[in-house]
From TrEMBL:
Name of protein: Bet v I/Major latex protein domain-containing protein
Pfam families per the UniProt record, alphabetical: Bet_v_1
InterPro entries, A to Z: Bet_v_I/MLP, MLP-like_ligand-binding, START-like_dom_sf
SUPFAM superfamilies: Bet v1-like (SSF55961)
Bet v I/Major latex protein domain mapped to chain residues: 1-94
Signal sequence interval, chain numbering: none
An annotated GO BP: defense response
Species in which this protein is naturally found: Linum tenue
Length: 94
């Protein structure tokens, strides 16, 4: 991830896997993201469209800024959008 020419680095830990709700929560435990955010979590949730079909993916970012002037994490959001597109391209290849 890159924001204003600065690469964002994060080491994540799988904090929770919820098989019933098809979601996984990742918690950032190291990296320069924690220089701007006190806490940063990413939740990915799959919602099946129908049985034996594709799923709709929802990304949720939960974070707390260290200071009020810290920008919103749009670079992380952009990364997640690109990641989703890459995964979709991979699964729809024939």
């Amino acid at each position: 991830m890159c924001s204003d020419g600065v690469h964002k680095v994060a080491k994540e830990l799988v904090e929770d896997i919820d098989d019933a709700n098809f979601s996984t929560t990742f918690k950032v435990i190291e990296g320069n993201l924690l220089k701007e955010y006190k806490e940063f979590k990413i939740v990915v949730k799959a919602t099946p469209k129908s049985e034996n079909s594709t799923s709709l993916i929802h990304w949720t970012m939960e974070y707390e800024k260290l200071k009020e002037d810290v920008p919103e994490p749009f670079s992380v959001l952009k990364f997640l959008v690109h990641l989703s597109k890459d995964i979709d391209d991979h699964h729809t290849k024939k």
